[in-house]
Amino acid sequence: MDNTAISRIIDTLGKVSSGAIILSANPSIDAVAAASSLYLGITKIGKTVTLVCETPIDFDLTAVEKFKKDLLVAGDNLVISFPYSDGSIDKVDYNIQGNLFNLIVTPRPGFSKLDPSKVKFTYSGGIVDFIITIDAPSLNSLGTIYNNNQNQFQGKELINIDRHLTNASYGTINYLNKTSSSVCEMILLLLQQLQLEIDRDMATNLYAGIAAATNNFSSYSVTADTFEKIASLLRLGAIKKNIKNINLMPQLQNRERNINKPPQAVEKENQPEEGTPSDWLRPKIFKGGGLI
């Protein structure tokens, strides 16, 4: 356990108010579970935090919907967003009636009017006091998030949390454990040292991350400490579940529907197209050199 790094993280989080947790492109379940759990934890102590990753996050984990593709921290600027197609808006105007400020969006003739149910409200313009990178061996592994925002990384507390053997120790604080079974195991320890409440959602995420990183606790990096942490997560209410990729759900649902169908129905669906030889789907046995 890197007590020095953890102590410095605790001290830093006590001084700052807003920042971002950033993942490298195409993150693992372990990385996403670790980031979302840390996000849930430090927002409980009043910190304004943004989860950021340049690639879409589709894992079935709590708080993944909070991920943004851009390094924008909530501030005082109200941002009004709605679906837009090129040329669909004729003009945007405003007026003030009493104590009401009215923003008027006029559609161009021939285009549909704005659907109020699709309008979203967010805030931007916040100051980044700190940046936490998780499971990122280098700043370049963050992709466009770093390349397009290098000035945001200058002069900031940069907390680098990772277990990669190749990590370049690029942070102002480097919390590294290159023998850890998972990043989630490291985050659990950090949350415990921060004395933050770990609720069921956080425990479930962390359990899933450790399970995924260790191939269901069978990898060589699993130790007695790992099982002790798993036990503590289960006592905190962690739900054991298989983490699915949301984008794969239609295929999984089709597979489940086939399982529930009579064998004759599935067999009929899998019949070859007309004109295909009748024995096409039968197992083939090839002979050669006297071996079968």
Structure in a nutshell:
The chain is α/β, with parallel strands linked by helices and 292 residues long.
Query: How many strands?
Result: 10
Q: Structural class, please?
A: alpha/beta
Q: Any idea what the shape is? A: elongated
| N-to-C span | 57 Å
Q: Which structural traits does this protein have?
A:
six-stranded parallel sheet, disordered C terminus
Descriptive overview:
By secondary structure, this protein is α/β, with parallel strands linked by helices. The chain has two domains: 3-76 and 125-235, inorganic pyrophosphatase (n-terminal core), CATH 3.90.1640; 83-118, no CATH class. It has nine helices and ten strands. It has helices at 3-15, 29-43, 144-147, 150-153, 183-193, 200-213, 224-235, 249-260, 263-269, and strands spanning 18-23, 48-52, 67-68, 77-81, 89-97, 100-107, 120-124, 130-134, 157-162, 173-176. The strands form three sheets. Strands 3-2-1-8-9-10 form a six-stranded parallel sheet, with helices on one face. The protein has a two-stranded antiparallel ribbon with strand order 4-7. Helix 2 (29-43) runs parallel beside helix 5 (183-193). The radius of gyration is 25 Å and the shape is elongated. Mean pLDDT is 82; it is low at 246-261 and 286-292.
Blueprint of the fold:
Blueprint lengths: L2 H13 L2 E6 L5 H15 L4 E5 L14 E2 L8 E5 L7 E9 L2 E8 L12 E5 L5 E5 L9 H4 L2 H4 L3 E6 L10 E4 L6 H11 L6 H14 L10 H12 L13 H12 L2 H7 L23
Parallel strand pairs: 1-2, 1-8, 2-3, 8-9, 9-10
Antiparallel strand pairs: 4-7, 5-6
Helix pairs in contact: 2-5, 2-6, 5-6
